[in-house]
Design brief:
The complex is a heterodimer of chains A (262) and B (349). Chain A is mainly α and 262 residues long. Chain A has one domain. Helix content of chain A is 74%, strand content 0%. Chain A has twelve helices and no strands. In chain A, α3 runs antiparallel to α6. Chain A is globular and about 60 Å long. Chain A starts with a helix and ends in a 6-residue tail after the last helix. Chain B is built from eleven helices and 15 strands. In chain B, the strands form four sheets. In chain B, strands 5-6-7-3-8-9 form a six-stranded mixed β-sheet, with helices on both faces. With 349 residues, chain B is of the alpha/beta class. In chain B, β8 and β9 form a beta hairpin. The chains are: A mainly alpha (262), B alpha/beta (349).
Chain lengths: 262, 349
C-alpha cells in the first residue's frame, strides 16, 4: 500500500510542478464555466423548460458538472508516452501492479486539481452565480459517494482506451472520440433531462450517465429514495465491472507490449 | 551457485514487412530472430560484460532477464524464478539501470524518486536514510537531491538512476549502456562505485556497453554476442590471451621511408615519419622487427602498444565471421600480413 500511496503523491506533485500551467488551467476552467452558464441563462430568459430545472437549479447543475469534469481531467497520454519513450520498461520492473500504480498516480493528480484548481473556482463561481444547498444531508452524502464512484469508473473506462497504446497504437484519435462522446453524453454540456426520452433510455443502459449526471442529480435531490440507491448500485456495478476488465486488459497489454530500442 | 541460468534462450520479433501506405492494407509480418538459442549461467557475485555490435541481441537478452519481455523459447531462471512469469517477484531481486531511459520522475526533485523506491520496496525509514546518504556520498549526489530531474545533466541523472536502482539492495544489478554519453569524470565515478558495490555487497552485476573501458575496468568475464548468438563466453584474461595476441610497434623514422621489406608484420597506419606496425606475439618479437627495420631505415624513436580490449573484440568478430569456428587465428585476415611470403610494403605515398 505504501508504494501505491507514494505514487499518488508523485501524481499530486507532478501536477504541481508546472505552476503557470496550473494557473492557466484554472483561468480557462473559469472562463468556460462562465460562458456555459451565461449561454444557458440567455436561453432561459427566452423561455426554457422550468418544469425540468429551475434557473437556480440550472446554475447549480452547471457549476457542479463543470467542477466534476475538471477534477476528472486525467493525463490521457500517460501510457502512450511511456510506451514511446520506453519507460514502460521501468514500470514493468516494479514489484507493483501497473494498473494499481496508474490508478494511484491518476488519483493523486485528480486530488491536486480538486484542491488547487476546482475547489477555489467553484467557490468563486458559486459566489458569483449562486449555488443551491443540497436538500438533505443524505443527498449530500450520496452525491459525494457517487462522485467518488465516478472517479473510479471514468479512470477504468479511460484505461480501456489508453491501453491500446500497449499494442502499439497511437491513441490520439481514440482519445478524441472518447472525449467527444463523454462530453456530449455524460450530461456535462447539456443536462440529460433535456435529451429526447429515447436517448435518455439508451443512456441509462450505458455507464455514461453515471459519470456526471448521477452525482449532480443526487445533489439536487432529483434522484432520491429508492431511485438514488438504484443509481448508486448501478454506478458501483459499472465501476467494478470496468475495473475487472481494465485489469485484464492491462495484464494482456503488458504481456504483448514490446519494448523496442536499446 | 548460479544466480542466472539461461538455456537455449530465443526471442523472435514479428516485424511488419510493408511500410508506409501499403502497410495499411498489407499487415503481413516477418519474424526476426533477435536472440538465437543462447545459453549461459552466471554465478553469484560475478561481474559480467555483455558486448556486441548494435542489434546483436544484448539488450533483448537483458529485457528477458529483467522480465520485461517473454522468451519465445528456451528456459530462463533469475534467482530461481522465471523473470517474466514472476515479474513482480523478480523485481524485488533485481535493480536495473537503462542509460537511455530513466526511472526518475522528470518533473520532481531527485529525492521524490528515491522516496518512491523506499516506499515500493518497504525499506524501513532509518535504513533508507542511511543507505541514501551512503549512495549520495559515493556518487556525489548530495547537492542534487532537491533539484528536479529535468534540470540534471546526463551524467548526474545516470548517477541518480544507479542510486535509485540499488536502494533496495538487489542481488543482481543490470546496467544497459550505463555510461552512454556520460563525460569522463562521471564515467570514472560510476565505474569505481560499481566496483565497490560488487566488492563490499557482493552484488552480481551485468553490464552491456559499447565502452570497452567500462568492460575492462569492471568485468571479470565477457559474453560476446553477434547476430543473436553468443560467440565467446570466457574470463576476460582468457579472452585476452586467446584473441589479444597482437601488439603494435609505433616507430618514428628520421624521414618518411619510400619502401622497405618486413616479414611477419604489417603496417596499419602511417602519419608522416610515424608508423604503426602490427604483429603477432607468436610470430615475431619487437626486437627482431626493430633490427630488421634498422637495416633499411633510420629510426628516431619507438614505442610498444599492447592490444586494448577494443581491438581484441574486433579480432573476435573477424574470427567468427571468417572461420565460423572459433580458433585463434593463425592466418591473417584480408589486408593483413603475417606468416607466409614476405611482402613489399609501399609506404610514404
Amino acid at each position: 500500500m505504501r508504494g501505491y500511496a507514494r505514487f499518488a503523491i508523485i501524481g499530486f506533485r507532478t501536477n504541481l510542478a508546472y505552476r503557470w500551467e496550473s494557473i492557466a488551467g484554472t483561468v480557462s476552467y473559469l472562463v468556460s464555466v462562465a460562458m456555459g452558464i451565461e449561454l444557458w441563462r440567455a436561453l432561459y430568459r427566452n423561455g426554457g423548460d422550468r418544469q425540468i430545472l429551475s434557473a437556480s437549479e440550472l446554475n447549480t447543475y452547471l457549476v457542479l458538472t463543470a467542477g466534476i469534469r475538471a477534477a476528472l481531467t486525467m493525463d490521457e497520454f500517460f501510457i502512450e508516452q511511456r510506451v514511446k519513450k520506453g519507460t514502460i520498461a521501468v514500470d514493468m520492473m516494479r514489484p507493483l501492479s501497473f494498473h494499481g500504480m496508474l490508478f494511484a498516480y491518476t488519483i493523486g493528480g485528480a486530488l491536486q486539481r480538486l484542491l488547487t484548481q476546482v475547489a477555489p473556482s467553484v467557490v468563486l463561481i458559486a459566489w458569483l452565480y449562486g449555488v443551491q444547498a443540497p436538500p438533505s444531508l443524505a443527498a449530500a452524502l450520496f452525491a459525494v459517494l457517487s462522485a467518488l464512484l465516478s472517479v473510479v469508473l471514468l479512470f477504468e473506462l479511460n484505461l480501456l482506451v489508453w491501453s491500446a497504446a500497449l499494442w502499439g497504437h497511437s491513441t490520439w484519435s481514440y482519445v478524441t472520440i472518447k472525449e467527444a462522446m463523454i462530453q456530449l453524453l455524460c450530461g456535462a454540456v447539456v443536462p440529460i433531462w433535456f435529451f429526447p426520452t429515447w436517448l435518455q433510455t439508451v443512456l441509462a443502459l450505458t455507464p455514461l450517465d453515471s459519470l456526471v449526471h448521477v452525482p449532480v442529480a443526487l445533489y439536487l435531490g432529483k434522484l432520491n429514495g429508492a431511485g438514488a440507491l438504484v443509481a448508486l448500485a448501478k454506478q458501483a456495478a459499472w465501476a467494478v465491472g470496468a475495473m475487472l476488465l481494465g485489469s485484464l486488459v492491462c495484464r494482456r497489454g503488458l504481456r504483448s507490449a514490446v519494448v523496442y530500442g536499446g | 551457485m548460479s544466480v542466472i541460468e539461461a538455456s537455449q534462450l530465443s526471442k523472435v520479433y514479428a516485424i511488419p514487412t510493408k511500410k508506409g501506405l501499403r502497410g495499411l492494407f498489407d499487415q503481413s509480418l516477418r519474424s526476426v530472430k533477435a536472440v538465437d538459442q543462447v545459453s549461459f549461467s552466471i554465478e553469484r557475485g560475478e561481474v559480467v560484460g555483455l558486448i556486441g555490435p548494435n542489434g546483436a541481441g544484448k539488450s533483448t537478452t537483458v529485457k528477458m532477464l529483467t522480465g520485461v519481455l517473454s522468451a519465445t523459447s528456451g528456459t530462463l531462471r533469475v534467482a530461481g524464478r522465471d523473470p517474466h512469469k514472476d515479474r513482480r517477484k523478480n523485481a524485488w531481486k533485481i535493480g536495473v539501470v537503462f542509460g537511455q531511459r530513466t526511472q526518475l520522475w522528470w518533473d520532481l526533485p531527485v529525492r521524490d524518486s528515491f522516496d518512491l523506491a523506499a516506499s515500493i520496496y518497504r525499506i524501513p525509514a532509518p535504513e533508507y536514510k542511511a543507505r541514501r546518504d551512503e549512495m549520495c556520498e559515493l556518487l556525489d549526489l548530495g547537492p542534487l537531491l532537491d533539484r528536479p530531474v529535468r534540470s540534471l545533466s546526463l551524467g548526474q541523472r545516470v548517477r541518480a538512476d544507479i542510486a535509485a536502482a540499488l536502494l533496495h539492495s538487489p542481488e543482481i544489478l543490470f546496467l544497459d549502456e550505463p555510461t552512454i554519453g556520460v563525460d569522463l569524470k562521471a564515467k570514472q565515478r560510476i565505474r569505481s562505485f560499481l566496483e565497490e558495490a560488487n566488492r563490499t555487497r557482493g552484488v552480481t552485476i551485468l553490464i552491456t556497453s559499447h565502452d570497452m573501458v567500462d568492460i575492462e575496468r569492471n568485468c571479470q568475464r565477457i559474453i560476446v554476442f553477434d547476430k543473436g548468438k553468443v560467440i565467446v563466453d570466457d574470463a576476460l584474461d582468457a579472452v585476452r590471451s586467446r584473441f589479444g595476441n597482437e601488439r603494435t610497434l609505433v616507430v618514428t623514422l628520421t624521414q618518411p621511408a619510400a619502401s622497405f621489406q618486413l616479414d611477419n608484420a604489417h603496417i596499419v597506419k602511417t602519419d608522416g615519419e610515424k608508423m604503426w606496425i602490427r604483429f603477432d606475439r607468436a610470430s615475431a618479437t619487437p626486437v627482431e622487427l626493430l633490427a630488421r627495420l634498422a637495416e633499411q631505415v633510420e629510426i628516431r624513436d619507438f614505442a610498444l602498444e599492447e592490444t586494448g580490449i577494443e581491438r581484441t573484440v574486433e579480432c573476435i568478430y573477424d574470427a567468427s565471421r571468417e572461420t565460423k569456428a572459433l580458433e585463434p587465428l593463425k592466418t591473417p585476415g584480408p589486408g593483413r600480413l603475417g606468416e607466409g611470403p614476405a611482402s613489399n610494403l609501399g609506404i610514404g605515398r
